[in-house]
Automatic annotation (TrEMBL):
Coiled coil: none annotated. Residues 35-56 are annotated as: Disordered. GO terms for cellular component: cell envelope. It comes from Streptomyces boluensis. This is Substrate-binding domain-containing protein. GO terms for molecular function: carbohydrate binding. Residues 61-317 form the Periplasmic binding protein domain.
Amino acid sequence: MPETPRLSAAATRRNLLFGAAALSSGAFLTACTSNEPKESTGGQAADAPVADDKPGKPVTIGFAGPQADHGWLNAINVNAKERAKKYKDVTLEITEGSNDTAAQIGQIDTLINKKVDVLVILPADGKAMTQAGLKAMRAGIPVVNLDRIFANPQAYRCWIGGDNFGMGLNAGHYIGEQLKDKKNAKVVELAGLDNLELTKQRTEGFDAALKNYPNIKKVARQAAEFTVESGQAKMAQLLQAQKNFDALWNHDDDQGVGALRAIEQAGRDDFFMVGGAGALSAMQAIESGDSVLKATVLYPPTMAASAIDLARALGQNKGIGGMAEFEIPSSITLYSAVVTKDNLKQYMSTGFK
C-alpha cells in the first residue's frame, strides 16, 4: 500500500485558511469604547479592553497601510501600533506606508518573505491589490483586510471596516429628526471625492434617510477633496450659491476645518452642521458650542486596533470573546455612531488629530 503523501506545513495551513474562510459566517458588530473621557493622542480608545490580554503563543503581525497623509489615516497607524503594545505576545512589523500600489505590493512581498504569522492590510486600492492578498493567503498567511476591501473574498480571512452607507444614513436621520417639524426645510451636502465609491455610498445613505422626511429637500451638493483647502473653497461656493438653508452635512472632518473657516468668514450662523469621521477638532468644536457644528458621524479609526485583536486571535487560533463560535467572523462592519454634545464624553478618546 503506497504511503500517503504528507502535506507541507504551509500547504496544510493554506488548506485550513481557505476552508475556514468558506465556512465562517459574516457578522455585523458595533465598536466598543470607554465611557470615561481620556486625552486623545491619535484617535484611540485608550482604555478599551483588549480582546484577551492573557499571554499566549507569540504572534508576529505584519501591518501594511497607505501613506498617512490624512488625519484619519494617521490615526489608523497610531491605533495599530498602540494596540500591539498592549500585548506581550505580539510583535508588529509595520511598513512605511505608501499610496503607490506597486510600492505597497512590494512592502507586502517583503512581509511575506519575512514569514510573518498574520498580515493586516489597508490597501491603497483594494481592487488593484487583490493579488497581494491572494498571494499571502496562498502562502499560508491569514490576511485581515482593513476597510478598503479586496475584490476577491479569497484574498482575506477577515474583513473589518466602516459603513459608508450607514454613515450617510445616520447623518440624514439625525438631521431629519432635528428638522422634522419645520416646513419646507432645506439641506445641503459637502461631499468628498466623487471618484471614490465611499463618497457615492455616503451620499446614497444620506439620500435614503431624507426620503423619510417629506418636509426636507436637499437643495445643493458640492464635492470637495477631503482636504482643509478644498473644504474651505467649496464651502465658500455653496454659501455664495445658497443664501438660505437649514442644515449642512459634511462628509469629512478634515475638510470640515476648511468649511468652518468659510462659514465664519461669511458670518453665517443660520443653519447647523453635521460632520463626518470623528476628528478631535470636530469633537472639541461640538463641546465648545461656539460654532454651527453640532454633531459628527463616526468612521472609527479604532478599527485598526480591532484588526490587531483579530490578527492576534488568528495567529493563536482563537475566536472572539463573547461569541459562541470557535472562529472569528469573516466580516465585521462597524457602526457609525452620531456624536453630539449629549454623548461626547463617551467618544472623545477616539477623536483623531
